[in-house]
Amino acid sequence: MENTPRYGDFAFLMVKQITRIGAFLDTGEKKDLLLPFSEQTCKLQEGKGYVVAIIIDDITQRPIATQKYKKYINRNVDDLKPNQEVDLLVTHFTRLGANVIINNEYEGLVFSNQIFRRLKVGERLKGYIKEIREQGKVDVVLQKQGVESIEQNSFKILQYLKNCGGSSTLNDQTEPHIIYRELEMSKKAFKNAIGSLFKQKIIEIKKEGIILLENNSIKQK
């Protein structure tokens, strides 16, 4: 399988069977992956998924899984840059937000105020580096920041309006979760984008919602 996890990967795998030597995880191939008891950090349940790293066992020299994945995370984040698009794997949640593995190598955090829909442990999604702080701590957001994000969001809103026949009941009074459900963007990003479209005289903003003006369009950059 194309997405079959390999040595060096971080993955979210389901427990297929628990035996006297450990748990066997479903990799999507005929051969399951062993998660030995010595590499477990909690009591496992069959049919449930867990985040693991895939390493080589010192004794057998064969791939095994470990829940002690944090020691295999790369702490040198020099290759990461602000606004860089990255692949994310959600590992767990804290009071601060969602902890993620970035590009199958680094650790980061999506703060709660940057999450606009329900995320799940094991979910893979795209994100963007927001900031790299002291001690290599990486803040991640789920949407692009800055002017470029406004242009992309403006294009998305325009396409949405066209699909809706030229108008929508969405406006700056709409609840954030509804905006995210319809457009997959935050309310702040939505307000910035419709403000940009309004200034360009591409849409009208009314109490009833937003309206696409005739013979207007915006090109995606």
Give your account of this protein's structure.
There is one protein chain. The protein is of the alpha+beta class and 221 residues long. The protein folds into three domains: 62 residues, Nucleic acid-binding proteins (OB fold (Dihydrolipoamide Acetyltransferase, E2P), Beta Barrel); 64 residues, Nucleic acid-binding proteins (OB fold (Dihydrolipoamide Acetyltransferase, E2P), Beta Barrel), CATH 2.40.50.140; 66 residues, Arc Repressor Mutant, subunit A (Orthogonal Bundle), CATH 1.10.10. 17% of the residues lie in helices and 34% in strands. It is built from three helices and 13 strands, in the order E-E-E-E-E-E-E-E-E-E-H-E-H-H-E-E. The strands form three sheets. It has a five-stranded antiparallel beta sheet with strand order 3-2-1-4-5, with no helix packed on it. A hairpin with a 6-residue loop joins strand 2 and strand 3. The longest helix has 17 residues.
